[in-house]
Amino acid sequence: MVRRFLQSSSAMPDAIVKSAPNRGAESLRTRGEAPRPGATAVLVLADGTVFEGRGFGAACHAVGEVCFNTAMTGYQEILTDPSYAGQIVAFTFPHIGIVGANNEDIESLTPVVRALVVRAANGTPSNYRALDSLDRWLKRHNIPGISGIDTRALTSRIRELGMPHGVVAHAPKGNFDLAALKAEAKKFPGLEGLDLAKEVSCRQSFTWDETPWVWNTGYGKQSNPTWRAVVIDYGVKRNILRELAGVGAEIIVLPAQASADDVLRHKPHGVLLSNGPGDPAATGQYAIPTIRALVDSGLPVFGICLGHQMLGLALGGKTRKMSQGHHGANHPVKDLETGKVEIVSMNHGFTVDRETLPKGVKETHVSLFDGSNCGLRVEGKDIFSVQYHPEASPGPMDSHYLFERFAKAAKARA
Fold first, then answer.
1. Which of the following is catalytic: 305, 308, 326, 327?
2. CATH number at residue 324
3. For the chain, what is the domain count?
4. Active-site residue, 305 included
5. How many whole angstroms separate alpha carbon 288 and alpha carbon 67?
6. What is the pTM for the complete model shown?
7. Residue 177: exposed, middle, or buried by beta-carbon count in 10 A (0-12, 13-18, 19+)?
8. Domain encompassing residue 49
9. pLDDT tens digit string along 85-137?
């Protein structure tokens, strides 16, 4: 028996979710069911669950790990975050597309997110900075989207059962081979064991001098740097580089597979380990020896997200895959050293296991949602990292002080 849940949204009044029974979980097509008339997109999960809706963006299909993001703003920054490689993003905020798209609110030139899932897609942007609609922007980058589904039901499912593998398929004529889509979702290998950083990292070194965005002025330029930072690019977000430039750094960005000699050749005063996608243990096969050498060099080291996880591995800890991960711009994190609670931006599916951290490595931050590790530092050294994104754009901005802390330590060696 197939369960149906009718939606009440005016954006897609006939959208439904069909859940195949757990036993066997046959595809809905083989059970004699096809998508309802009017459905131009489907989200098919590996267990046979099918969400029907209306397609937008590119008319194609994409497979990946399905996660939900709780941010209410900044969807273009999220969609261009390299950390989303291999993932399908479902937004819990119901209306996406209102501010359109532009050339400034991006974290990378080439988005690597697999697909987009929303409750209601807005096709007519209402913002003075909009240069295009989200629909056309997605088409330009060959990213499919599905709207009109019950994202609350999808979110609840992920919270209870973990992040599933799925396929978003957009076909304007409504023709779908559900059995084939389900099989494709089941064959997706998942993110454990995958080194995705080398796929999104830069191919050669480059410099950066753009500073943070200022209202009605745009981005500035760092013309008088006072210290030098080397950033190892595992999938770095542009706003990390902007924030570094904003605290006076001359910035040199190196590929993910850079060696310690490659880094030290530039005579940096500090090294930043960037965010990025995939399994930190897989990327760590080549990154950990580099990080250990940098730790031994005595330079200040600052890790963000994947950089935090790999610093934890380099120091002797271990990481593990999370059930649903943390994705959103409204996560509470407690600084254990000050007692202060920060609202932060998160985007990760792996976490550092605090129980494996060796003596001399102190846990500094924890998530108030689930108690997982969100920060560490090496006692007696200017080496620290956080799981969250202190550079978050458009915000929150509670954690910008971390860039100032890093800059202060680096300037002491300039």
1. 305
2. 3.40.50.880
3. 2
4. yes
5. 28
6. 0.92
7. middle
8. 3-187
9. 999 999 999 999 999 999 999 999 999 999 999 999 998 999 999 999 999 99
